[in-house]
Amino acid sequence: MLYFSDDSGETWTRQAIDTLPEGKSLEDVLSVDQNIVWACGSDGLLLKTTNGGSDWEIVGVSEVATDSFFSFLSTFEDRIWVSGDEGLVIFSDDDGGSWTVCDLPEMASE
C-alpha cells in the first residue's frame, strides 16, 4: 500500500488503489521531488507518479527483468537505478522508457 501525507503525518491518504496489483508487495519508495515519486517491489513491480501521487503508472521492465524482486531505488543526475534479487541492477536514462542491465562481477550476487 502507498500512503501520502501533506501535513507532516497528521493525516494520511491511500494512493495507487487502482494501480497497485493485488498480491504484490512494495519494498522501496523514492521521492525525486514533490511531484516525481518511484516505488518498487515484488515480481518486477515498478511504479511512478509525476503529479505527486494523484496518478500512478506501472513502468514496464519486462525486457530486462521479468519476475525479479526489486528492493532498492536510487537516482543520480538524470539516471534512475533499481536493484533486485540475485545481484540484478538496472538503470534508465530516459525516465523509465528503456532499461539497461548492469554487467556486474559474478560475486556481486552473493
Describe this structure in words.
With 110 residues, this protein is mainly β. The protein is built from no helices and ten strands. The chain has strands spanning 2-4, 13-15, 26-31, 37-41, 46-49, 57-58, 70-76, 79-84, 89-92, 100-101. The strands form three sheets. A four-stranded antiparallel β-sheet has the order 3-4-5-6, with no helix packed on it. The chain has a four-stranded antiparallel β-sheet with strand order 7-8-9-10, with no helix packed on it. A hairpin with a 4-residue loop joins strand 8 (79-84) and strand 9 (89-92).
List keywords for this structure.
110 residues, mainly beta, four-stranded antiparallel β-sheet, 0% helix
Give the arrangement of secondary structure elements.
Layout: E1 2-4, E2 13-15, E3 26-31, E4 37-41, E5 46-49, E6 57-58, E7 70-76, E8 79-84, E9 89-92, E10 100-101
Antiparallel strand pairs: 1-2, 3-4, 4-5, 5-6, 7-8, 8-9, 9-10
Structural class: mainly beta
Sheet-strand content, in percent, reads: 35-45%
Please work out how many helical segments DSSP would assign.
0
> Roughly how many Å apart are the termini?
30 Å
Number of strands: 10
Mean pLDDT: 85
Overall 3D form: globular
Largest beta sheet: what is the strand line-up? 3-4-5-6
The share of residues in helices is: under 10%
Q: How can the largest sheet be summarized?
A: 4 strands, antiparallel
Low-confidence stretches: none
Rg over CA atoms, rounded to whole Å, is 14 Å
Series of H and E elements: EEEEEEEEEE
